[in-house]
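Example A, followed by Example B.
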Amino acid sequence: MGAEDGKLKVEGGQGAQRPRRRLWRWLLAVPLAFVGVSGLQVVVLRFVDPPFSTVMALRQLEAWGQGDWKFRVHYAWRDLDQMAPSVPISLVAAEDQRFPLHGGFDLQAIEKARSHNARGGRLRGASTISQQVAKNVFLWQGRSWLRKGLEAWYTLLIEALWPKSRILEMYANVAEFGDGIYGVQAASRQFWNKDAARLSGAESARLAAVLPSPRRYSAQNPGAYVQRRAAWIQRQARQLGGAGYVDDAD
């Protein structure tokens, strides 16, 4: 075999390796880019109040897709200190009583939910407020493994980069309290024609009581279930120590 033949074989082998190297570079670049972009998203929203969330945008598109061109999302941001003190403790009492104590995932609640679901009956979830913020702000509704994996990643970022007060503030502003009504301020204006700062303890509890089924239950015209749950939330809020329980979370 001549020198030129050997050179051609070497060059041919190198040429075959180039697409592989490019593929590996892409396989490494995509997750690294995702880590960087997602981290930047969370850092920015630590300081910037979002004009909307992913869930809000998808709800608006859903309405338009159904031909409901008059549908509008109702959303108005309010800082936590512009809400009645009964609001954050009501949300924690209703949705995530160990919120100040866990790092984004409540392992005790997960185990209780697993044991309950194994016995049959109505399925019980164990999502924390941090997980719900991750889903509502950055992701979409659903039960796929992809979404759950992304939810876990964003939850870790949120817990690492935001104080607990910011997580709770974000949740109070992006949670849905009625069909297309997002955040405590928008709900307060729609249901009782007043600002979130003037909500009573009973009204705050009723808002928390409709979670996580705000299109099924009404905080404005509560049925027997919402009334019972709201009374339970008020009792739980008192037992947790009132507003001070979440004020000291950071």
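Example B, a separate protein, is given below in the same form.
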Amino acid sequence: MDLDHALRISAAGMEAQSARLRVVAENLANRDSTGESPGADPYRRKTVTFGNRLDRALGTQTVRVSRIGTAPGEFPQVHDPAHPAADARGYVKRPNVDSLIEMMDMREAQRSYSANLSVLETTRGMLTRTIEALR
């Protein structure tokens, strides 16, 4: 594999993890977003699914975001009759965003991004040393 391919593969990984970080940030920003009317559904947590894509120029598979979906499941409910989104029984549906899970996803995405960045920097250094040796 030549060094240009390594750079492109690492860049694809960084791009995928960057998208994942954006989704995590959106989830954390909306962790308190309830519905606007009584009984309305609140913000639903978004998820990222990765997939492989054949990069014909490289002749190899690279990672990409194949889908940004939503997490299934019930919404937790809290009793708050004074809230504008409270149903007839006084319960408000809360988003299904768990800050701990989001922080763990963020750390994992950061580590993956950093690993791809390290490969990119190492490859760039190898290219620089090769050019210097050819002078």
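On Example B: Residues 20 and 75 are 23 Å apart (CA to CA).
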